[in-house]
Amino acid sequence: MTLPVLVITGASGFVGRHLLAALKESYRIFGLARRSQRECGAAVHPNIAWIQVDIRQRDAVETAFREIASAGGARYLIHLAAHYDFTGEDRPEYRDTNAEGTRHVLDAAAALRLKRFIFASSVAACRFPRSEGPVSEGTPADADHPYARSKHAGEAMVRGYEHAPTCIVRVGAVYSDCCEYAPLYSLLDAWLGRGWTSRMLAGRGETAIPYVHVHEVTAFFRRLLIAEECLDHGEVLIACSPGCTSHRELYERAVRLYYGSPRKSVHVMVPLCAVWLALVGMRGRITGRRPFERLWMLRFIDRALTVDNSQTCRRLGWSHRPRYRIERRIAFMVERMKSEPFEWYAKNAAAMRRTTDRPDLRIYTAMAAVEDQVVAAATEAALSHARDGHAGATGTDRATLEWTFRLLYRLLMSSVQSANRMLLMNYMEVTAASRLKTGTTAGEICFLLETLRACIFRILGAGSGRKATRQELHDRITVPIEFGIDEIRAQEERYVEGLAPAAAAGREPTPREQLEETIWSCLVQRR
After folding, report:
1. Which residue range forms the structural domain that includes residue 415?
2. pTM, to two decimals
């Protein structure tokens, strides 16, 4: 049976990775993300095709969607890709990713003939508290912080989309049994630590928002994909637990579970909170280590974002499972924190270090644009070096040199794209012995790699628009090449010590040695 095709943008994110794992058996999925599949730890499966792309770049998005269209198109698209942070600053990423990026995806998706375009928004895009009662499906995205404004723009574009039916899913604060939600982690880290803030609650402790476990989010989207035909165009749905949960409730449950008994909290008045935030903020600016807590958070102290998503539950036939309420899952978080501290802190440290700057993707895109230029420059440099009679130069003809440099260059591009700096080294481990057997010296191979590196640095560093710093190029170009050179020297030492290939030893080659010979034959003969 042919599986329906699903496109997920933001597939490397927290929700995206869990969606891939949950839906990979039921759908053929195209995952679009800034990070590579290996780097983000996303599921690898025959039903998942990965496309590394930054939705801020219109040309790259159009290319990715042409690939999807040529593979047969898609039935559904879940647009998760978005920028958010907790600095309170109006950063350009909100406009570039959440607004313009959404426009790029909508425009490119027109060719897919989708049955449904699903846009992920947030209940935090709604102003609260509201005089008319809880936030519901009919509430406008009218909050005034930068993230909310960008989501409001995205929702407006989705409602006006004419190429496919759409719906908008406003999601609550998503967490897992390891937490992985930065504000909640910051609270638990303080309450369950030994610092002087361990008993502190801002205001009356009534700051409250709706949470949703990541497993509930995946169950929600699974149900949505099944029931999408019953929805209206541009309909708003809410994916979270009903009501909201306050800091006071979370504190009481967490400390009782962690210490085995209640601990009286200390309530700090808002003016004192303001003084404390100003002081720690000043210290952070001096030391360069800004705290998670910021002054903008003051205005939300003792405010409750209460949600009523009963209409969503009726429309989809979906309901929030009580065992996934955060009041119950706190027990799992505390136990994970105590029993698996390294995993706990590693996952939450990753959640705290969210970044939209992807130098690997920028460098990969720049490398793709100048491939012919770099290969031509490296070939000319190698030929000129050989004509001058320098040591280490190779006498290979121009056509073979061009092919060799192109192969090495594309290996480096794959290394940058996959964030695997060992790729070139692994290739040399397989091929260098056969190359040495043909009479080529290790110095000649190293010369080719060094020539290629110098040309990449010169050409990529020349254009200010490419924005590749020398440190970024060092990390993603020089380091893999140095690993490759080290492997070549190691192969040379083994060869000199008498551990030559099987042909020299008068025995039949092993399968590995046959592979070495085949790969290097392709390289030198330009098949």
Report:
1. 359-525
2. 0.74
Q: What are phi and psi of 125, to 5 degrees?
A: -75, -5
Compute the distance between CA of residue 248 and CA of residue 173 in angstroms, rounded to an integer.
Answer: 17
415, pLDDT greater than 50: yes
> Given the DSSP bridges, would you call strands 211-213 and 173-175 parallel, antiparallel or unpaired?
parallel
Q: What is the mean pLDDT of the chain?
A: 87
Contact in structure between 56 and 37 (CB atoms under 8 Å): no
Q: How many residues does the chain have?
A: 527
**Which position has the token pair 């880290």?**
189
Kindly state whether residues 366 and 496 are assigned to the same domain: yes
In this structure, are residues 469 and 410 in contact, taking their beta carbons and an 8 Å threshold? no
Query: pLDDT digits over 19-30, tens only?
Result: 999 999 999 999
Q: Answer with the residue of higher pLDDT: 119 or 466.
A: 119
Q: What is the DSSP string of 139-200?
A: ------SHHHHHHHHHHHHHHT--SS-EEEEEE-EEEBTTB--HHHHHHHHHHTSSSTTTTE
- DSSP track, 465-513: GG---HHHHIIIIIHHHHHHHHHHHHHHHHHHTT---HHHHTSPPPHHH
Q: Which of 429, 458, 209 is nearest to 326 (CA)?
A: 209
Q: Which residues pair with 266 in a beta bridge?
A: 200
- For residue 397, what pLDDT is reported? 78
Q: Kindly state whether residues 289 and 216 are assigned to the same domain.
A: no
What CATH number does residue 31 fall under?
A: 3.40.50.720
381 with 422, same domain? yes
